[in-house]
Structures are given as C-alpha cells and as structure tokens.
Amino acid sequence: MSDPRFDPSQVFQAFGMRHVDSQGFDAAVVQAPGADLRCVFLWGQDCYNCNLFKQAALMHREALLELGLTWFEADVYADEPLGRRFSLHGVPTFVLYRSGKRLGRITGWPGLPQFTAAVRHQQEIAENSGQAS
C-alpha cells in the first residue's frame, strides 16, 4: 500500500529535474554543451507505474543521486508529440543522452539494481572512450 503522504511531484525537485517539451527538447537536452550523462524521464499524469518509480526514487534518493545524472522530465500525456518522437508504448521511459548522442532507453521501471546497472554501463563506456563527465 502506498503512503497517503506521498506526493509524486516531489521527485522533480528532489532530483532537480528540468522540464522539457517537444519544442525545446533538442536545445535543452541534445544540443546543450557538456558531456554529462542526461536522463530524460518520460511519464504521464496519474500513471500508476510512473508513480511507482517516483516513490522508489524518493525512497532511494541517495543511491540515484550518486549516479551523477542530469535529470529532465516530460509529461508525454500532455505533450503527445514528444511521446511520438520516441515511439513510446508505455511509461515510464528513461532516455539517456551524452554529448548530443542518444545512448539508449529503459522502458518501465526495472527497479533500482537494473536501472543502476544500465546507467553504470553507459558511464563505463564513456570512461573507456575518454568522455567521462
């Protein structure tokens, strides 16, 4: 059972997620300077699985912050063109970018161990190619 005091919107502030939309996505995420690993959290209002991620993220805040991601978020229920851009079949979806390149995506919330492993894999690739943030 979920905590009645749980406010899913707290996750945006807790992780410093910057809101993006279909119109400003490229400028904010793809074309922005830097070699940081960017994670775009695509979600939907009143989405049960999205709220599961938000609650898990708040519970495991320190572990997720240690990953050093730059976070972005977009409600693709409200911004359908952005959802179509990524051919979404479900949310939550997490899309990873570094230095203008789309690295991959995670569809659904796989849990902290699998999410962390996927992010660490991308960080290792960057370190081995000399692009570490």
CATH level 1 name:
Alpha Beta
Q: What is the gyration radius calculated from CA atoms? A: 14 Å
Beta strands, count: 5
CATH architecture term: 3-Layer(aba) Sandwich
Query: What is the total domain count?
Result: 1
Number of helical elements: 6
Q: What is the mean predicted local confidence, pLDDT?
A: 93
Largest sheet: 5 strands, mixed
Into which percent range does the helicity of residues fall?
A: 25-40%
Low-confidence region ranges:
none
Coarse morphology: globular
Structural class: alpha/beta
The CATH topology is given as Glutaredoxin
Provide the β-strand percentage band. Answer: 15-25%
CATH H-level homologous superfamily name: Glutaredoxin
Describe this structure in words.
The chain has six helices and five strands. The chain has 133 residues and is an alpha/beta fold. The chain has a five-stranded mixed beta sheet with strand order 1-3-2-4-5, with helices on one face. Strand 4 and strand 5 (101-107) form a beta hairpin. The longest helix is centred in the last third of the chain and has 17 residues, at 112-128. InterPro entries: Thioredoxin-like_sf (IPR036249). This is Thioredoxin family protein.
Concise overview:
The chain has 133 residues and is of the alpha/beta class.
Defining key terms:
about 130 residues; alpha/beta; Glutaredoxin; five-stranded mixed β-sheet; 5 strands; globular; Thioredoxin family protein; Thioredoxin-like_sf
